[in-house]
Prior knowledge:
Chain A has helices at residues 2-24, 26-35, 39-52, 57-70, 73-86, 91-103, 107-120, 125-137, 141-154, 159-171, 175-188, 193-201. By secondary structure, chain A is an all-alpha fold. Chain B has 328 residues and is mainly beta. A 14-stranded antiparallel barrel of chain B has the order 1-2-3-4-5-6-7-8-9-10-11-14-15-16. Chain B has a two-stranded antiparallel sheet with strand order 12-13. Chains A and B meet through helix 5, helix 7, helix 8 and helix 9 of A and helix 2 of B.
Amino acid sequence: MNLNHLKLTLLLTIFASGIATAQANPWQNSYTLEKAGQYARAISALTPALNDRPNQEFLLMRRAWLNYMEGQYNDSLDDYNQVLAINPKSLEAQLGLTLPLMAQLRWREAAIAARKVISASTWDYTANLRLMICEEAEHKWADLSRHASALSARYPSDATVLVYLARAEAWQGKIYKAKSAYSKVLARTPAHIEATAYIKAHP
Amino acid sequence: MKHIKAMTPNTTGHYLFMLTATLFSLSAYANEADQALIPDPSSWTATISPQITASSFTGSPSRDSVTSYGLSTDFQYLERAGFAFSYDSTELKLKPATATASATTIQQTSAYLSGRMTFTPDTLTGFLSVSADVLSANNNDSSNETNGVVVGASKISFLNYAKTYYLDLGYARSGYGDSTIGNGSLSVQQLTPTLGLGFGSNWLQLRGYNIQISNPARAQGNSSTSAVETIFTHYYSGVGLIPSQIRLGALFGTRIYAVDSSTIYNLADVQKGGLSLAAQWSIGTDSNLTLQSGQDQYESAYTDPTLLTTSTINYSATYLYLNFSHSW
Lengths: 203, 328
């Protein structure tokens, strides 16, 4: 009986301390607030921890993301750059830079950031995709065509890369090649609106 | 036995080392070849644009034609800053003052230097830009009234990220050479508020010109002029022979001694409207060809050299402008 009582007390203590930890845990609070779309409060929840450890890489990465979600793009860039100052090898931070830069339509800067990731990891899907977004925004159709074609060879079942290839060909007036790429898109995503519309408009 | 003896541990290690080194170098070569497949954007974009303008005057008793050659260069660093420089050489052919006189020409050179910076403050959700320009024009005008022109101009502009509207406010101050025919000095101040609106594949720009003139005696009696310039642009796919954009421009109101971007309108006559049509073609992904034609209306006081009577005359200038630009 005494043993059972002891076990129960122990379990309750562990449970109670678990709740207390969850309530006081800045990470938990931050994630809960982010899920609720309250990004500014999610950032505030991290502030005490950041005050204690201002150069903690993961905390800065987390705040960079939340600043990006909050629309504080310059603060987000500052955070990602601070991470890169601490850890120049961080591909995550380099890739992170592309998000606020693209949100500010700073396509060339975003492209350079994505390209740095690619220099370290040639066929990184996300970095290549973001570089292609920049190429499209800057109307660099020949570059986009070449790039999308090379990436599609590495990710042959991916429809998104083929859409970029098709757009690049279409903008260059290469209807046959655009149709070919859009047909491949439809084989992978049969209800793709853009591909369907293009093929219908170019019988 | 002899063969086994040859394969000593050291020799095997050597072969393994050679194999590893070969595989490593092949791998490096493959990575290099892969990297070459992916575009490598640069921080700078340079654009060079040679241009030519030919213009002829109708109804002017003194002016015959204008030919201008120019070269513009522009350097853009990321989306942050840029500078531009242009140089133009212009020849204005004048009609002979009398039947026995010979035709004369005015030779002019003009230069333009501009610097700009762009900011992206989160509070404005768009591009905030500031620019500062210096322009100059020098010619052999015997009256010196259109010569020795130096302009300082600045502009603050805003373009929202969605590119649905644009605002700018420009200010320019022009100083002209002192008259050698007794008309005194001249300085001109210009304020140009601008509104741009984007909708669908179209862009509409309205720019107001408010020009204050220090010496009306050198501005056809005007101490100020006001005008609105409208430019409507429609964007096309630009595939093949289809232009990438068509621009229709019109000027309403009056203006004199205006400064428009890199151009000084140092003609001492009052512009009373104008109409233009331009088309731009994309050549490849890095070149553009622009062809523009238009007609401007002018008003000027004219003193007949024979009768010595002064009257107001209206005349027009019809022009053709060709520009080719290439970026790296």
